[in-house]
Amino acid sequence: MTDVSDSPTIAWLKAPQEHDFPAAAAFLQLIADDDTIADIEKQLRQAPTVQQKAKDLLRASRLPLLDATNPHVAGDLAKIAHGEALSPILLVRGDLARGVPMVIADGYHRVCASYLTDENTDIPCRIADVRGGHAEGGKHR
User: pTM for the whole thing?
Assistant: First the structure.
């Protein structure tokens, strides 16, 4: 990890880009039914944007940190270096009592690039809950 004093500031868009929602839905089709996906997408579109630390997102998702050699992470690191704003992350809340990790429905590579820049960076996120069932852990973009 880079010394925080040397880390560039990460710029973020105020809201997810429109293409992030169908990307999240495409991933969720692998782990949830159509009604659940429709409900999650609706929640993500309406949810307030909240801030979460990069390190906490990785911990809650139980996903490994991808390194800078991953082409998608490298692309996001280049955007950070050039001051390009990244899109907020789309999440599905996990279930602590059942041991189900949080799902990064869209933005896994952005989380990793942010962590590599500064693990304590605040990342804007939107979080949805699964109602009447639960998507099992996983990742996407």
Answer: 0.88
